[in-house]
Amino acid sequence: MNRRLVLAVAVFSLFAVSISARPFVLVLSPDDVLNSPAAPDGDGAATDPTTQNDSADWDEFGDSAYPQSEDELDPGSWRPIFEPEPLKPEPSDQSDEQYYSTVSKLIKSVSSGDTALMEEAVSEIEASASRGVPHARSVLGLLIGTGQMRKQNKAKAFTYHYFAADGGNMQSKMALAYTYFRQDMFEKAVKLYAELAEAAVNSFLISKDSPVIEPVRIHNGAEENKEALRKSRGEEDEDFQILEYQAQKGNSLAMYKIGLFYYFGLRGLRRDHAKALSWFLKSVEKGEPRAMEFLGEIYARGAGVERNYTKALEWLTLASKQELYSSYNGMGYLYVKGYGVEKKNYTKAKEYFEKAAENRDAGGHYNLGVLYLKGIGVKRDVKLACQYVIAAANAGQPKAFYQLAKLFHAGVGLKKNLPRATVLYKLVAERGPWSSLSRWALESYLKGDVGKAFLLYSRMAELGYEVAQSNAAWILDKYGEDSMCMGESGFCTDAERHQRAHSLWWQASEQGNEHAALLIGDAYYYGQGTERDYERAAEAYKHARSQSNAQAMFNLGYMHEHGQGLPLDLHLAKRYYDQALEIDPAAKLPVTLALASLWIRKNYANGFLVHLIDSLPEVYPKLEEWIDNVLLEEGNATILTLFVCLLTVLYLRERQRRHAVPAGVAMPPNPNELVAPVPN
To answer: What HEC string does 16-32 produce?
Structure first.
């Protein structure tokens, strides 16, 4: 199956100003659903993952017997560098201590642009990698794969990531999975993404969404995304300061919102459960009922407070009485596990899940799906379970994506479909603890440390994050030499920078970024950073056009009109021009001119006007260069203005002269009553 088709069917992404996923709609045909709940391979329950007791399905409040920390879920993470814990002891392993010291040196070098320090750090990483340190091998895979201070070698980079992944490095597993995914090697990609997705689910906040890492797109097209960046400045954001002032004055809604920001780590704030608890309690005291549900979750999780299931149930019950139906989902979970209640009660749990689901709560749908998948307190019904899980997925519930991926992977309830399973696992895996790279990159960018931001976005790009790919490419295009891009032997040359940006934009376009597809098309059309290739330009424009991009449609129309990379076809050209106008009314002027050009070309095929129109692309750059270099130089603009004024005066005087009546000739009283002169 074509990967782009899969992405079109099942893709969601996070936007800069949103804390939730773009609506995910999974459209399944009757052919996708199995009539029999058994696995098609005939292995029965032994190979059916839905019948097994998977902690990722039910560990709703992080209460497993052997909980894992983020450091354990993401070994080799750069978290100790970017989020150091004051009371945490130094690494006992000497190799780990050396590794973090070297990575710190690497990060410092790209911030300062110190190529000598960068060379020293890379040499130390190479030495550690040769001794078999998996995390050093992972970093070396990044450096060699992108050609930083070493000759670029994709095959060698893959080898380093392979052995790093074998040593337990999760980020190298992400890099390998993405490499397999790009090559449609779904058998290999699905295994890695399944493991990564499970680790991501184990790090999720329960009964609400997963840990919210906002992958902010720092650009909007070719320009900086100032609005999104403004809303990511945390406590320095003016809007946040106003909200905090209102909260301090006793506004319950403001208190609740600040509690949310700290609880999930939104708007550039670091997550702080203690502050969230404080603001939620104040909000409830002032009469804001929505905070009750979060207080129930906080006590159930033991987030910033000692875990207390009895208090959790009390707060959730109070919230349910305020018609906050999602609280029923948390209550149902407590009855499934027997926490804070006398004993487990599956019947009551099902009732609470149903109340939540009836009121469109994604968690309620998901948990009902799990009940029917596993046959807990109900007769096992895989088809009904699939309906509940799909409803939860379409509402953005991340665990539902994971459950659907397992169903497609195993062929239980849904026909086995590895491409879809891979895409769904990938969506979940990208929300794992390694997504913290996005926050660190954004914080660095906001502080003006473009070099550090570029390194972090490059790391994420290698792991398959589309937003990071486009952000890194945009930094290269926008900042040029100031991007602190490191090449094979120091700062990137123009050729290295263009080639790297081109590669990043291409990867982003493969994952549905229409702006990236346009830029790739332009690069091939104009020969910018690559050889001119009209056919590949057309392919990129078609990719952008598939996402209803008006500019791409106009470009395809132009290429059909001139037979560049596409067959000369004036009818198709007109169709594309018309579609561009339908999509974007602002395209009226260029489309009108293009249609006029088509009319002239059709009616005067070899005429002077056609030759004139065809010569414009060659004349325009020369005219633009002349204007930039001559007319817009300091002082020349004033001369140009005076010259235009002079021409205007001369034109008006000539116009007046031509329309003036000769002396001695009387005007007739009515222009329509002209009579012939009487002969002498």
So the answer is: CCCCCECCCCCCCCHHH
Check whether 465 has a pLDDT greater than 80.
yes
DSSP alpha helix (H) spans, 203-272: 226-230, 238-248, 252-264
Residue 448, pLDDT score: 95
Question: Looking at residue 82, what is its pLDDT?
Answer: 93
Q: Which two tokens stand for residue 590?
A: 């260029």
Structure tokens at 509: 């376009």
Task: At 199, list the tokens.
Answer: 């680790």
Nearest to 210 by CA among 466, 406, 432, 425: 432
Q: Which residue has the tokens 């001794």?
A: 131
CA 180 – CA 186 distance, rounded (Å): 7
Q: Phi and psi (nearest 5°) for 387?
A: -60, -45
Residues in CB range of 663: below 8 A, 6 or more apart: none
Identify any residues that bridge with 486 across adjacent strands, giving them in sequence order.
491
Cα–chain-centroid distance for residue 322?
36
Cβ–Cβ < 8 Å for 232, 16: yes
Cα 292 to chain centroid, rounded: 32
Separation CA 456–CA 511 (nearest Å): 20
Which pairs count as long-range contacts for 179-186, CB under 8 Å and 24+ apart, including other chains? 181/3, 181/422, 181/426, 181/464, 182/3, 182/507, 182/510, 184/3, 184/419, 186/418, 186/419, 186/421, 186/422
Candidates 300, 255, 301, 297; CA nearest to 278 is 255
Residue type, position 45, single letter:
A
Within 8 A by CB and 6+ apart from 525, the residues are: 532, 534, 537, 555, 564
Query: pTM of this prediction?
Result: 0.79
Note the pLDDT tens digit of each residue in 611-649: 766 766 665 555 455 555 654 554 555 555 655 665 666
Write the DSSP string, 173-222: HHHHHHHHHHTT-HHHHHHHHHHHHHHHHHTSPSSSPSP-------EETT
* Count of other CB atoms within 10 angstroms of residue 341: 16
DSSP 473: H
